[in-house]
Model the fold of this input.
Amino acid sequence: MNLSLSRRRMLALAGTGLAAPLLGCSRADRKPPASSLPVRIEVVAGGLARPWSLAFLPDGSLLVTEKSGSMKRVAGGKARPVAGVPSVMAEGQGGLFDVVLAPDFATTGRLFLTLAQGSVAANGTRLVAARLDGDRLRDVTPLWTATPAKRGAVHFGGRLLLLPDGTLLLTTGDGFDFREEAQRASSPLGKTIRLTQAGEPAPGNPAAGPEALPEVWTLGHRNPQGLARDPLSGRIYLSEHGPRGGDEVNLLSAGENYGWPVATRGMDYSGATISPFRSYPGMIDPVHVWTPSIAPSGLAVCRGTLFPEWEGDLFSGALVDRELRRLRLSADGARVLGEERVAPGLGARVRDVRVGPDGALWLLTDETPGQVLRLVRA
Amino acid sequence: MNLSLSRRRMLALAGTGLAAPLLGCSRADRKPPASSLPVRIEVVAGGLARPWSLAFLPDGSLLVTEKSGSMKRVAGGKARPVAGVPSVMAEGQGGLFDVVLAPDFATTGRLFLTLAQGSVAANGTRLVAARLDGDRLRDVTPLWTATPAKRGAVHFGGRLLLLPDGTLLLTTGDGFDFREEAQRASSPLGKTIRLTQAGEPAPGNPAAGPEALPEVWTLGHRNPQGLARDPLSGRIYLSEHGPRGGDEVNLLSAGENYGWPVATRGMDYSGATISPFRSYPGMIDPVHVWTPSIAPSGLAVCRGTLFPEWEGDLFSGALVDRELRRLRLSADGARVLGEERVAPGLGARVRDVRVGPDGALWLLTDETPGQVLRLVRA
Done:
């Protein structure tokens, strides 16, 4: 694991030829074509306020988080408020993020939430456990908080994934002003973090040296807000926001470094160069890059859905492009063979995409009013 | 026709017993029950900016007006801009309103638009003719403008209906500050206006006295934005916004006075009484009143739709209540037997509702992004 790479060393290496040309990485400078598969989009529920994530409950209802810090239970097309949601820092990009059910949810009501906590002056991404009792959360318990606190109200990551071994994989952002922290294994910023359901560093995490946080699983991320596991291959994909350009999809492996901010296809919002490197030795190239940025949000792998044509494909919401993107993957899952725009007329910021238990693709729109949508065959 | 009723005369009559009790008029002080008929709402197109009205073109595409003064042609789930839309006064409640195809649209491309024209200091509701040529409007011709101009940016009415005799029925608002004008047949405010397709007063309009505008068809309206004709019975229904409470559905007859502001169930936004009368001799009581206000928008009569259970029922969008209301009418169409909330989980301001050529109910959401939605059987 590449624990720390100073800007000085980056600059020293620039121009040495070690900045490899882009290999095995697709790039989309132009809008991909629209999908020709006829789909229908159904409104499951509306009237939500910037919904961020959803969980399918065993009784057929849904839990939906809203960015401002509230949660709704959606059943029969109607959204009822859930009480007892822990307070969040609802400033800037901060708020309530993901909701994931514990494996024993059906009997215990246990679930996990991610959120931004603190103030604009001192805050961080937090993992919380709670128990759903009817329309109320009880026993809210903070499990893990990104420490030390960062300042500012952007780049929290916040996507959460339950792995088959019962551990939790959580994304954190680089905090924007602290991008070099993404390269330091001693910092919780710009990482994936693997924890037990008690919030402890998960056994088997890659050894990252004496100064490293034992919860770090991968490093070198900017602001990852998409995270999905292919249930067939077991591959884990992460999407992250680039700066101006350079949005990425990465195929994760424990202990690897995904390059930010040493290697990126993006430039700074000012137009300034962030790094001379688009690739870097010892750092993993992305599977896919979006330049210009689409602002990727939730991520899903299509398995066993209503769409056999899309079996094994990766789907990403697009906040800025206000649609869904389909990525057709190679058999090894490491290359993108083609990209399509799905539902390009949707015209709403897509915050999340999930495969539902019914085989449909479920979407959330990051709007007020926001909606839960269901994508099925036309 | 009750041409002019001064406030003095209103006050003189108050307490004389002439203020009749409410008869033949339903009232909804509480939320009606939700419909038990399972429906599905499909997103036809999104990404619109406060869509106001739609027209079904013979080729299966749609024209959709947007309040700010633009128009989109929707086909294959995507919305393309239409060029050549006449400029509008896009201030306050002003903007581009309705679009109605001429009977010879298929061969000529002729259509009619309603809009607010002028400035905040001097403006009025206008009817315009144009010709659709591909994705462009040509030969834009103003046909009728509410004269004299009013000031302020509210209460334009603006709903338009093509009648079987080829005449056009247009609603105008009272302009808010000029509510007594709704009782004066010499004023274009607070009326329905019946015109030929050349914009002339339609033959057969009720004789309204020497000082009356020959285009006036009914009077005593506040801000009517719903207008629908039952194709079976020929009855014409109009919905109008009350002040605080007192939203109304009226069954129209040529030359009749619908009471505003002499008779109303609403009170002023200040809480002040507008009129001591809830009913008034010689003025027509509403078929239905909503107190508190739901802010009724588009109106449709359900005939030959996918919903035989709803045959002959009246549907109204609700802007404030963010849903659709179903009114079950008596056989004579003059009483409401029951009311239901349809799609109460929609959670978006419903601006228009139409029966589509496919038998579905089509909705527009008054949001940005706004949508074209299709309501079908689940």
Q: What stands out?
A: The helical segments of chain A are 7-13, 105-108. The two ends of chain A are 47 Å apart (CA to CA).
